[in-house]
Structures are given as C-alpha cells and as structure tokens.
Write a structure and sequence with these properties.
It is a single chain. The protein is an all-alpha fold and about 200 residues long. The chain has one domain: Up-down Bundle (Four Helix Bundle (Hemerythrin (Met), subunit A)), CATH 1.20.120.1760. Helix content is about 70%, strand content about 5%. The chain has 6 helices and 2 strands; from the N terminus they run αααααββα. A two-stranded antiparallel sheet has the order 1-2. β1 and β2 form a beta hairpin. α1 packs parallel to α3 and α4 packs parallel to α6. The protein is globular. The mean pLDDT is about 90.
C-alpha cells in the first residue's frame, strides 16, 4: 500500500472516531449501544495513530517517498484531529463550544511546530498536548466512560446542561494545547537566538 493511501486512511478513522463519539449523545436508554460507540471510538483513535506511524515507515522502508508526501503526512493529521476532538465536544457529557476551541488550539500546536521548522529551528514535538497525548487522553476517557457505571461517572449540571468526562477531556486538551504552544514557541525562539537563520549573512 502506498504511504499516501495510509495517510488518507487516517482521516477515515479520525472521522469514524468523531462520529462514534457524537452519536453517544443519542444513545439514551441503550447502555450497550453507548458503550459500544465509545469502544469503537477508542479503537478508531488508535487505528488513526497506527496509520500516522505506518505511513512514514512504509515510505522509508519501501522507498516510496513522493514529492507530495509531506503534504499527505501533515494535512490528514489536522483533519483527523479536528474531526475527533469536535466529535468529543458533541458526545454525551461533552462541551460543544469547548470541542471547537480545543480542535482549533490543537491545530495551532501543529502550526507552531511547522513555523519553527520553516524558520530553521527544526520541528518541536514537546507537549503536554502533542498529538499522541491528545489521542491518548481521549482513548482513556472513552474506555473510562464505557466501563464506569453511570452512578460513578462524574457529571456537573450547568444551566440545564450535563457536563461529564468528555467535557473535561476537551477542556484539558484546550488548556494543554495553550501550554504546548507557549513551550514550543519558547524553545523555537531559544534555538533561533542561538544561531543565525538559514541564509543569513554574518
């Protein structure tokens, strides 16, 4: 399989995870369906990460790198991130506005990394909410929400709306992404100050 095809497959799994999460909000009275959707979401999140790992490995080992490989490596990640995190915002116990904000901030972390690379400071992958951390958090929350009895699942009602584990997840992703952006910018600035930019004259 071509690595670019694997990259595109990650979008499918990202959307599937987001759709499964969003559908949990319509699973009232059907606990088996609710839990199934959460497990499906967790599995799709991990399959998406496996695709992200395999596309680069296949490109290197199979010597199938292409001129547009970098585009296929980066763009599907941003789509998958947004689809999954927004889906978590729409999930049962989620926070819709928080989901959109968290998705935007997650994309911003990738932008900061790309900005550092373009400026000559290399790629900064530090967290606390890099892509693997975001997906790990959502996977853990999916599994917890699936196995916890309703009585033990934390919920807070504000203005008639229930906020639960998914609301907490998107909030942590949003806050963690802000910290990640600050840390990456700080490291990039430090690297750039330590030496001249590419092409600069001494």
């Amino acid at each position: 399989m071509h690595p670019n095809t694997i990259s595109v497959a990650s979008i499918v799994f990202g959307f599937a995870a987001g759709a499964a999460l969003a559908l949990t909000d319509n699973a009232d009275g059907r606990p088996w369906f609710f839990r199934t959707l959460l497990i499906v979401a967790a599995v799709c999140i991990q399959l998406r990460l496996i695709c992200n790992m395999l596309d680069g490995m296949v490109a290197v080992e199979g010597k199938t790198r292409s001129a547009v490989g970098e585009l296929y490596n980066e763009f599907p990640d941003r789509i998958s991130d947004a689809a999954t995190i927004i889906g978590a915002g729409y999930a049962a116990g989620g926070w819709v506005v928080g989901g959109f904000v968290a998705a935007l901030l997650a994309v911003l972390t990738a932008y900061v990394r790309a900005l550092g690379k373009a400026a000559g400071a290399g790629s900064e992958f530090c967290g606390p909410m890099a892509k693997p951390h975001r997906m790990a958090l959502l996977t853990v929350v999916c599994v917890l929400a699936a196995v916890l009895p309703p009585a033990l699942s934390p919920r807070v009602q504000i203005s008639g709306t229930d906020y639960g584990l998914m609301a907490l997840a998107v909030m942590l992703i949003g806050l963690g992404s802000i910290i990640t952006c600050v840390r990456r910018l700080s490291r990039i600035a430090k690297t750039l100050r330590a030496g001249p930019l590419p092409g600069a004259t001494s």
